[in-house]
Every structure is written in C-alpha cells, then in structure tokens.
Amino acid sequence: MARVVLERLTKIFGTTRLPVPAVRDLSVAIEDKELLVLAGPSGCGKTTTLRLIAGLEEPTSGTISFDGKVVSDLLAKDREVAMVFQNLALYPHMTAYENLAFGLKARKHSKTEISRRIEEAAAILDLTETLDRKPAELSGGQRQRVALGRAIVLQPKLLLLDEPLSNLDPPLRARMRLEIFRLHAKFEGTMIYVTHDQIDAMTLGHRIALLKNGELQQLAEPPVLYRRPANLFVAGFFGSPSINAFQGKLIRKNDGIFFEEDRVAQRNSPTEVRLAPFVLPIPATMASLLLPFVGKPLVMGIRPEDIVLSSSPANGGVKAILERVEMPGSESHLHLTTAAHTFIMRCSSAENHAAGGQREVRVQFNVQSTRFFDPVSGKTIG
To answer: What is the pLDDT along the chain (382 residues), one digit of tens a residue?
Structure first.
C-alpha cells in the first residue's frame, strides 16, 4: 500500500495578476493503511488537494510522495490511485458488472482476472445479486457501492473519496458510513476521504486534517480536535450544537483571576435583556497559565454539554434568560442569553424544562472544560 507525504504543496489558479490560491503550503503525512479525512467548509481546498494527489491537477509548487518516491510529475494513470467522485460518474448504459469491469478492461486484464476481482468486490459490497442491473435500476446506496467497487477492483495503492455521501439522505448516509468503515477494514489500504460534514469526519477518520482557505488548521485524532482545538475555527467546526464563544477579558479580583463578560459584545437576540455582565472565577489550576493575559481581551469557549442548570440560587452560577427549548430527540437544547451573548446548553430531554415564556435561570459553567482563544488570531491559549 502507500504512505503519502505532501510537502509544502501549493496550488494557485487564475493568472499572475489575479491569483486564486486554492491550497497553501500544505504539509501532511498520511500513514500506510490509514483512513485520513480532509475536512473543511466549501472552498477550503480539500477537493483540490485530492485532485493534486490523484494527478488530475498539477501543483504550483511543493511535492507529493508515495512511499518515498516523488510522484508530482507522474500522470494520473501511472500513480496506482483510484478515485470515487462526488457525482459517482457511473455509465448509465452499462450494467453494474460492466461499470466495475471498465477500468480493468482499459488496463488489459484478462477476462478471468476481471471476473475474479469483480466477484470479490461484489461479495465485499453486497452487490452480487445486482451485477446485471443498470444504474437506473439500483438504489442510491447500491449505486454508491458500485462506484466504490469500481475503484477497489483496481487494487490501488491509494483510494481517494471525494464527498461520496453528500447526495444521500441521512439514514442512507449513516448506513454508507458503516459500509465505508467496513470496506477500509477489508481493503487494508490507505484511504483519503474528503468531506464538509463533521459527522462523517469524526466517525470515519483515524485522523482529520481540517483546512480553511487552503491552509491546514490542525491535524489530529477526532477526540483531540474536539477537546483540544488549535484555534477557534477548529473548535467551532466540530460539535453540534457548536461551541459557545463569549467575548470578554481577564481581571484580578480579591487575589484571584476572573473572566468578565464583555459589555459591548454583539448579541444576536431580539430580546432586551437587562442582566449585568457575568464574572466567572478561574480555578487555580488554570490561573497560572492565564496570568500573562490579565487585562487583555479574550474569547472563552465552552461546549453546550459543559453547562448545567444551577440547582438553587445559593449555588451561585451565571444569570441568564431561558428564551426557548428545542427537543430534537433524546436531548434538549436550551437557548439562553446573558447580558451580551446568546448560547446553547445541551441536556437530557428527560429533564423538565418549561418551553413557554422567557424566565431567568442560573447556570453553572464547567470552567475546567473551557478553552480560551486570542480574539485576533483565534489561536488557543495554552
């Protein structure tokens, strides 16, 4: 199989006068037999990166190596790479068998070898009973598996998947994620999977490379990206509901350090809230790290699951207005407002929360789970 190394890979479209950078100075090492996810919003450069690896685009600068051999100048057909496109690109006039055989015929394999490989792939992908059907006669999931099968019958060193599930409805998408996970276990090859969907990324990837504007933001395992993000963009990309961000500053008070909510932060709530900005004590275990930032503006991030309703006013906490309650399923999302910010708290739907008029409540922040960010660069502090 293949270990893939991208070194300072850059791709610029457009002209010298009007350059459009798609990938900027990207350096990533994908280990042999790893399933790496390239994630990020639309236009971040993830599909361009995949096309550069496949040989469908030429890099402006930088190198691509497979197992230590530079392949940047090799044609796509010489790279032993297979790619599954977002639109599947199946031939509508061919049966599933003929679609699977197309690439093998182009490589001059014998009929016996073609038959053997297709039978093996069909067994893995549960397509044996559908090989004589044309794409129009197949379900969405079956068409998706044919597209995957057409790639794996080539026995490539590297399998590239460009948002293969984006056109599927949620239940089928969930089933196909499991199919791809099982396929990787049987294929035992190196896979690079492109997606803008955080659920695909978090559930499939051994590691995730998150891109923004063509630049790598962080490369890590899913739990690390969720709990120890490198910057505010990474923190906001992963998690549903997203992380809550509070603008404010650190202050000294009674020999301790506190986070004071910004009085002028923009609040996206139509409700006129008359609460004082909250002041949150910082635990001693975090205070020494944050000491150099006293008096400076910061952004405090906290996940919705790290907030709980205070059991009684005597327990202190942060005053907020409960504006509405959403119950999307087994959990509830409480939409709340402080003096200057709106935020979301996540809890069990079994808990009883009045969904009627607005009311004042107190919430407790698990400060040990908060992250602090530089408001200008977005970088995590600590």
So the answer is: 689 999 999 999 988 889 999 999 999 999 999 999 999 999 999 999 999 999 999 999 999 999 999 999 999 988 989 999 888 889 999 999 999 999 999 889 999 999 999 998 898 888 999 999 999 999 888 888 899 899 889 888 899 999 988 777 788 788 888 888 888 887 778 999 999 999 999 999 999 999 999 999 999 999 999 999 999 999 999 998 999 999 999 999 888 899 999 876 555 555 555 788 999 999 888 888 898 999 999 999 999 999 998 876 555 689 999 998 988 878 889 999 998 899 999 988 666 665 556 788 899 999 999 999 999 999 999 7
Q: Which amino acid is at 30?
A: I
Distance, in Å, from the CA atom of 272 to the CA atom of 219, rounded to the nearest integer, reads 41
Which fold is adopted by the domain 244-373? OB fold (Dihydrolipoamide Acetyltransferase, E2P) (2.40.50)
* CA dist., res. 198 & res. 179, Å (int): 18
- What whole-number distance in Å separates Cα of residue 341 and Cα of residue 277? 9
The residues near 272 (Cβ < 8 Å, ≥ 6 apart) are none
Helix (H) or strand (E) holding 95: none
Q: Which of 312, 302, 265 is nearest to 280 (CA)?
A: 302
Domain 4-237 maps to which CATH number in 3.20.20.140, 1.10.10.410, 3.40.50.300, 3.90.550.10?
3.40.50.300
pTM attached to this predicted model: 0.88
Q: Cα(342)–Cα(321) distance, rounded to whole angstroms?
A: 9
Cis peptide before 135 (omega within 30 of 0): no
> CATH 2.40.50.140 spans which residues of the chain?
244-373
Q: Estimate the share of the chain in helix, then strand, then coil, as percent rounded to the nearest 5.
A: 30, 35, 35
Specify whether the CB–CB gap between 107 and 183 falls below 8 A: no
Structure tokens at 59: 């890099």
In this structure, are residues 13 and 200 in contact, taking their beta carbons and an 8 Å threshold? no
The CA-CA-CA angle for residues 115, 136, 120, to 5°, reads 20
